[in-house]
């Protein structure tokens, strides 16, 4: 802030050397004035002398470009202080025009003109045009003006140094004070070093049984039962939650379990399912999530709820975009970045406005080995949502999540599972089904029939093609060829915008 004021003052001081109505040239050495009167070259020179100057004597390139900007409002061009003498070498600059007639008595008498078609042209000196006058800034450097100039420059430089020093001192003081405050807070607040962070709650087994009515069947929610059943619960304050009862797969220690839940509970984003708490009771482990009204995406794609509406194209694009935003947050905003590992339709929950909420962040560490093995090779030998580098080399990166999202995006568009039973070929992967349609440009046939039968906003083939192109970009075999999720979000946001009617 201080430096900006100093620079503004310095710029004002430089322009103050020129009289009112005059402009200073790029290297701050000359004052230039455009005069709109239409006079001959000699009359223009005489007029400029009344200001104590003369016609502008300019070097090419930068100064000529500046003169062109001053003169661009004049169609016929402007005289400048050069005389063009016809010779075998073209024209020469005559810089002795100051106070002289600058007339050449030869028949080739012509003077220099700057106009809008070329920087320099020559024309008979007795023609009439507007002109540009010039004053040398150096003329001001008399009677202690130069000493005053040096003093002003010294004051400006000193002011910059003082501002910079003051800013550094203030930053150091603020940094040291905040560091001391954080250190004292850690010492005085035992909860900060406790096993369970204060931002979420550790429930007892009795509390969870109470809020879920003893995990009754009436409270069971649809979802992935292979990792454990999920139940709805009602807290004493009236808010609803979802309680995930993990399968007994390993004897993970309480400290490790709480540590992992605490790490994931700190991740807050509108498109991630928030963790409200957990419970560790001997070998039983529970995770308490926020309640998302419309449940898993898998149910809406493959088991249309009774009396429920089918997902139209705009709703599916909203689901895909908001889901991509949640994944991009894990990849780009969290340091170190988080790999979800298990992106699929059952782990995407839909709210009342059909925005997507990704759940299961970190949950893959609690998934039984046999469940992960079953997902690695699905029915018919397909790999489902899992990226090939994870299947074959056990490599897992953010690009693996991008691959899984690409598979899920095609599932959202087509309404088909990653692997589906087909009478003629047995089990068929979603890409084995889609690729022939893509190769023959039959993009509308990739749409879920529910969109075509019940929706009025069926997208154009070109829009479907762009979404499918994004699918294939995300599922490139080479991980480095796949886009970042932030790029995917941008692409989906562009596709979700309604077309502009012309």
TrEMBL record:
Q: Where is the Protein kinase domain?
A: 216-500
Which organism is this protein's natural source? Turnera subulata
Q: Where is the C-type lectin domain?
A: 27-134
**Which SMART domains does the record match to this protein?**
CLECT, TyrKc
Q: Which UniProt keywords apply?
A: ATP-binding, Kinase, Membrane, Nucleotide-binding, Signal, Transferase, Transmembrane, Transmembrane helix
Signal sequence span is 1-23
- One MF annotation (Gene Ontology) recorded for this entry: ATP binding
- The identity of this protein, by name, is Protein kinase domain-containing protein
- Top-rank taxon of the source lineage equals Eukaryota
The UniProt entry, under InterPro entries, shows: C-type_lectin-like, C-type_lectin-like/link_sf, CR_Ser/Thr_kinase, CTDL_fold, Kinase-like_dom_sf, Prot_kinase_dom, Ser-Thr/Tyr_kinase_cat_dom, Tyr_kinase_AS
């Amino acid at each position: 802030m201080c430096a900006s004021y100093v620079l503004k003052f310095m710029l004002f001081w430089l322009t103050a050397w020129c009289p009112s109505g005059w402009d200073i040239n790029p290297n701050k050495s000359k004052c230039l004035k455009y005069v709109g009167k239409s006079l001959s070259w000699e009359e223009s020179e005489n007029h400029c002398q009344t200001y104590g100057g003369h016609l502008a004597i300019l070097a090419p390139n930068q100064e000529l470009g500046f003169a062109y900007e001053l003169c661009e409002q004049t169609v016929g061009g402007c005289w400048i202080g050069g005389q063009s003498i016809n010779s075998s070498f073209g024209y020469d600059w005559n810089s002795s025009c100051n106070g002289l007639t600058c007339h050449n008595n030869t028949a080739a008498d012509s003077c220099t003109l700057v106009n809008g078609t070329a920087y320099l042209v020559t024309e008979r000196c007795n023609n009439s045009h507007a002109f540009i006058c010039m004053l040398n800034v150096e003329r001001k450097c008399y009677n202690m003006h130069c000493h005053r100039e040096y003093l002003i420059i010294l004051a400006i430089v000193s002011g910059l140094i003082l501002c910079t020093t003051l800013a550094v001192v203030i930053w150091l003081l603020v940094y040291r004070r905040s560091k001391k405050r954080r250190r004292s807070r850690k010492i005085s607040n035992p909860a900060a070093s406790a096993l369970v962070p204060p931002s979420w709650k550790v429930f007892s087994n009795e509390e969870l049984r109470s809020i879920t009515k003893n995990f009754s069947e009436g409270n069971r929610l649809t979802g992935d039962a292979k990792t454990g059943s999920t139940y709805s619960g009602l807290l004493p304050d009236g808010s609803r939650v979802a309680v995930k009862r993990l399968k007994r797969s390993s004897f993970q220690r309480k400290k490790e379990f709480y540590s992992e839940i605490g790490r994931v509970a700190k991740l807050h984003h509108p498109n991630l399912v928030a963790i409200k708490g957990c419970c560790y009771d001997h070998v039983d482990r529970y995770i308490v999530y926020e309640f998302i009204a419309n449940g898993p995406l898998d149910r809406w794609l493959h088991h249309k709820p009774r009396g429920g509406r089918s997902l139209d194209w705009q709703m599916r694009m909203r689901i895909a975009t908001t889901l991509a935003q949640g994944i991009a947050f894990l990849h780009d905003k969290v340091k170190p970045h988080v790999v979800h590992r298990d992106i699929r339709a059952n782990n995407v929950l839909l709210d009342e406005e059909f925005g997507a909420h990704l759940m299961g962040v970190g949950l893959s560490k609690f998934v039984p080995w046999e469940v992960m093995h079953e997902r690695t090779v699905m029915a018919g030998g397909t790999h489902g949502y899992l990226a090939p580098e994870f299947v074959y080399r056990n490599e897992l990166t953010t690009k693996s999540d991008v691959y899984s999202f690409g598979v899920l995006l095609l599932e959202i568009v087509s309404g088909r599972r990653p692997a589906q039973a087909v009478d003629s070929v047995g089990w068929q992967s979603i890409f084995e089904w889609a690729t022939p349609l893509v190769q023959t440009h039959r993009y509308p046939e990739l749409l879920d029939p529910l969109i075509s039968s019940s929706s009025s906003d069926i997208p154009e083939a070109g829009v479907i093609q762009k979404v499918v192109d994004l699918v294939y970009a995300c599922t490139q075999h080479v991980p480095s060829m796949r886009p970042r999720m932030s790029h995917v979000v941008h692409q989906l946001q562009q596709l979700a915008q309604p077309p502009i009617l012309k």
